[in-house]
């Protein structure tokens, strides 16, 4: 089975070709920032990005007509269930005119759709977007009647890790309960309870990370907004791009901070320990949602490459369940594996229903 995976980022579009599960080609199409500034909205970049990907495929002698599927990173759709969704005109209309937010990932489905035009045999799909929302009603309630918790997480990599572990254990994913922590520029966690992502912790109500502030005491946050004269844009930028390690050390390079900690820097040691404690508390929180009946805890994402950090977390959480580490984000592989399951008939492609 020949599968093309597409992952649009803010300044690049990553493309990879697979034969079944084996990656045989990967290429990143870079987009100049000056070129991108010409577009008023992110979605206006669709034709430009599509043509650049087409040119790259032609230059590398990749025949689109030989593909069985094109799978793209899912954009910021309204809440959906986990798994595969067929790319449709209704989905593209939603992503262009009524997305939950504007982000480069919204372009993935459109690029896949444009590449597959004229080839009816090619399945076009997205898989496990960040807006997968299968939370139980009890997990949504907050202290404000008009505010519910919203599911936003690194679902593509986390669910792929959970499926991978179940397969390695010769188990059915739907029979298992896993807590998965994705640790990268942002940190999110999910509870996979018998095939359903029944609870989660997003990067705004969980641990701080290299760039994210994470959960901030509410009263202090209100004071900060009003005392410092913040706008919505400036406080969101502070929470998402100027918090965490960047606030403490003026760098978001976690490798530098870890090396400093290993070298005896007490502040670096303390802040890393604090982040690991926050991650561990969130893992325990999700374990409580499953009444403590957790089969495994999975640590993934780029930060999981650091044994210094994973060892600290393991010491705190191993009493809950055995810990498995799958470092990296693995988004391209995860997309291809999802498409392959669809092609093999192991999963169905859902039909997206637009929200107006």
Identify the notable features of this structure and list them briefly.
seven-stranded mixed β-sheet, 356 residues, 12 helices, alpha/beta, five-stranded mixed β-sheet, 20% strand
Low-confidence stretches: none
The ordered H/E elements are: EEEHHEEHHEHEEEHHHHHEHEHE
Shape: globular
**Average of the residue pLDDT scores:** 97
Radius of gyration: 21 Å
Number of helices: 12
Secondary structural class:
alpha/beta
**Quick one: how many beta strands?**
12
The major pleated sheet works out as: 7 strands, mixed
Could you please describe the fold and organization of this structure?
With about 350 residues, this protein is α/β, with parallel strands linked by helices. The protein is built from twelve helices and twelve strands. The strands form two sheets. Strands 3-2-1-4-6-5-12 form a seven-stranded mixed beta sheet, with helices on both faces. Helix 2 packs across helix 4 and helix 10 (about 265-290) packs across helix 11 (about 305-315). The longest helix is centred in the last third of the chain and has 24 residues, at about 265-290. The two termini are about 35 Å apart. About 40% of the residues are buried.
